[in-house]
Amino acid sequence: MRTPHALRTALVATGVTATLGLSAALGLSASGALALSAPTTETVALASHGVAHSKAKRVYVKTVKLADKVSRAKVYKTGKNRYQAEISAKGVKYGTLVAAGKAAYGQNNGLHVTLQPTGKVTSWVEKAKPKPKPKPVVKRTLVASATLADNTSTAKVYKLSAGHYEADVYTGGTKIDTLVAKGSAAYGENNGLHVTLQPDGQLTSWVEDTPAPDPDAASQPDNTDQPNPGTSDASDNATPDIQHSGDLQAPVAPGSPA
Predict the structure, then answer these.
(1) Which of 51, 144, 185, 240 has a CA 20 to 30 Å removed from the CA of 25?
(2) What is the CA 33 to chain-centroid distance, rounded?
(3) pTM score, two decimals?
């Protein structure tokens, strides 16, 4: 059930003037909302089209139970096509609607009320939006700690539920990642270090087999045969070896004696 907040809420009249008792303590905003500073049973000040009516001229008509099951509307007739409805809850009045020739509307904490110039009162309540359910807090239980394959990094394995494990991976004392295995394996890699966490909590790791470069390799002598400076390779500059046999003679020009 809803309970009116008499100090903070207001009924809004549309098309007419709605006033509440203890008028000196009321504040009328530009939107027409009347804020009640405290409940009162003193005389209700009425105003419509500049004509004031005293309480003595009001004629009680009926009391209507409103849609929130708590509030009540006491309806009074003040003239032809003129009605008032005092809205209260548990004996505390927190608003008044005045209908003079046309309907007056009000709203308080999701309760909507309409007063017709015939004296009819209708009301309805907004459906409250369901509050989101808070997420359950899952407790992590440490089940294992391990040094990984690079012999530097470590991992702490936590169980959250059946088939749900997490592993915090640390390098140099700093957490660099968290693997979450929930129903399926989780994988991670950092600088060649590979880590796998299974949904049963089993943790494995391995390091890529990449040999580190030898820093002394640049200073080692190269044993590859190199040509001696200042000399040439006989194979590069060799001329064809032409052999002449004894029976070969130079050609004789025509007309010359042999």
Answers:
(1) 51
(2) 35
(3) 0.36
* Residue 114 located in a structural domain: yes
- The answer to whether residue 218 sits within a structural domain is no
Phi, psi of 25 (to 5 degrees): -95, 5
| Assigned token pair, 22 | 């203890």
In sequence order, which residues have a C-beta less than 8 Å from that of residue 112 and are 6 or more positions away?
A: 67, 105, 106, 123, 124, 125, 126
In 3D space, the residue among 84, 89, 66, 63 whose CA is nearest the CA of residue 74 turns out to be: 63
81 and 14 together in one domain: yes
Rounded CA-CA distance 17/145 in Å is: 74
* pLDDT tens digit sequence for 200-240: 999 999 998 755 555 565 555 555 555 555 544 444 444 44
Instruction: Note down the domain range covering 47.
Output: 10-125
Beta strand 104-108 with 111-115: parallel, antiparallel or unpaired?
A: antiparallel
